[in-house]
Amino acid sequence: MKLTLNKFHVQDIQFAEASSFCSGVLYINKAELAEYLMEDTNIRSVDFDIARPGESVRIVPIKDVVQPRFKQSGSGQVFPGFVGDVETVGNGETNVLEDCAVATSGKIVAFQEGIIDMSGPGAEFNSFSKMNILVPLIYPVEGLDKHTHEATVRIAGLKTAAYMAKTTLGLEPDEKEVFEHESILEMGQKYPHLPKVVYVDMVQCQGLMHDTYVYGLNVKGILSTMIGPLEVLDGAIISGNCAAPGHKNATIHHENNPIILDLLRRHGKELCFVGVLLSNESAMLKEKKRAAYYTSSLSQLLGVDGVIVSEEGGGNPETDLMFNCRLHENKGIKTVLVTDEYCGRDGASQGLADVTPEADAVVTNGNGNQFVVLPKMERVIGDIETVRIITGGNVDSIGEDGTVSVEIAAIMGSCCEMGYEHMTTRLR
Prior knowledge:
The chain is an alpha/beta fold. The protein contains eight helices and 26 strands.
């Protein structure tokens, strides 16, 4: 399978009478985009705002962050099951808007939504502050239940991202990156002497709006399964999570999963990247065991020498993480874990809710309890009062001087357990 990412670097977003992309500027027709989104009758009203790098702007609450993409050629369409049909993706050419994102906001869905600051100390905790961001402010019809509200906002964000990237169809990209990934049989023939590695991507599926979708299907209740890495890069995995913003995997993280990208770039040179296993994170102990046993059995069937396991969320998912570690190691498969920690504001407490002696190779992505004071911003997109109820904030988080005092768990993606952000560990 071969996937080409056609990359268009966005230097600015502006509202205009017609949507187009020209000389690094993305022009958006607000009325046309609003009409498209309001085909969903669950949306009462929608507006849009723009946040640019370095501006004195705070966006809150944020449900999801999505990188705009649209397929130029190949089977299927980005975000299959939501924007496109459920046809297989991961091949052909896909147009990508670099340095650009959609951040869905508006009426808060649940308390686990986050903050993005475009400048100041908060901007250092995620790379979204370096992007040009279009913010759909989505307000649902009255009386909508929370699960339908979440789905409405999620799909609106995906449709917005596809709409934006569609403006580049037929244009010459600024750069291209080509990825190729063979069948398992071909890999065995081409790279017989390279160590075989699989990536275990643990995904939230606990219900209560802690959900992940693959080809539009909620993965809750399915057995661990294998997916091609190029499918993931082409938008096959979507975040439906209202989990803690600091360490939930937003859709943009799946689209740019750094573990997958690093493994693909080393594939056929330093290692043989066999593929991706999706391992469910349930709230039930029996389901945790089932997922870990089945995942480790799949790894053994594939004959891999090593696995990288990344967690999503924290607390009880650490049991899933340690089950995966123990069972893989007991099968003779070397295992590296990727997680974050919640070890108190002073960093002195135990950072993980569960551990196992086999976990002797662990990458951390920061302490979600780290405390920061964010300065007042000149402009807030959304509703600043939601800071008082989101994860990492409290009723006293907003100071009389306009400062915001929170744990970095409140900042979108600050401790991303894929190693997407600054607070991670890399082998030099």
